[in-house]
Amino acid sequence: MQLLVDLLERNWEHAEAFQDRFDSVQDAQEPDVVTVCCSDSRVLQDQMWGNEDPGHIFTCGNIGNRVVQRTAAGEAVSGDVLYPIEHTGTKTAVVVGHTGCGAVTATYDEITDGLSEPAGIEHCLGLLKPHLEAGVDALPDDLDRTEAINRLVEYNVDRQVAFLRESDDVPADVDVIGVVYDFQDVYSDRRGEIQVINVNGETAVKTLRDDHPAIESRIERLWEY
């Protein structure tokens, strides 16, 4: 129970700080961006953007930062990602992968060796697997396991971006961005820094830097396959 006491004390501090910040969004929301992040305790979904504004970011989370949902009619854009695009006028979607992703690791292991997981986890990995199989096949042979996983993290982000852009449910004027959140010193020694790896399907680093000079220093990839 002490953990709950501690959590509620932190919530009290939160409520004190945010007392007046909900005035303009109590009855409706028009978030500027929808993000889909990996459900991982190390991925600070709002703090990574320095967000302290209710109504600014529509945050979704699941293992593997998936935008894909399986329906009776086949694969579709997940409803939690699609909702703000469909109903609140949100025009920017950001897929947030992260270094050392456990879901990508488990999917890699499932593809290469086979795994046994509880049904709920198996379902989630099953949504990732068909989108990552080609990436696993394309991995260079000289990579160690850690390097392979972090390249697949980028590949997974690319596949989720592509799924959004190819869906008839997502209007063509919605910008879809792919990024990687790094807390393992993979891209730099600035833990928690975000690297942009994909903008509306473009993944070539030089092209991205030429097209987006304002964020040139934040554009990096490990793998241009």
Automatic annotation (TrEMBL):
Please give the SUPFAM superfamilies that the UniProt record associates with this protein: beta-carbonic anhydrase, cab (SSF53056)
Q: Which cofactor does it need?
A: Zn(2+)
Q: Which InterPro entries match?
A: Carbonic_anhydrase (IPR001765), Carbonic_anhydrase_sf (IPR036874)
Q: Which major enzyme category is it?
A: lyase
Q: How is the cofactor bound?
A: Binds 1 zinc ion per subunit.
Q: Which reaction does it catalyse?
A: hydrogencarbonate + H(+) = CO2 + H2O
Q: Which UniProt keywords apply?
A: Lyase, Metal-binding, Zinc
Q: What is its EC number?
A: 4.2.1.1
Residues bound to Zn(2+) are 38, 98, 101
The record's similarity note reads: Belongs to the beta-class carbonic anhydrase family.
The name under which this protein is listed is: carbonic anhydrase
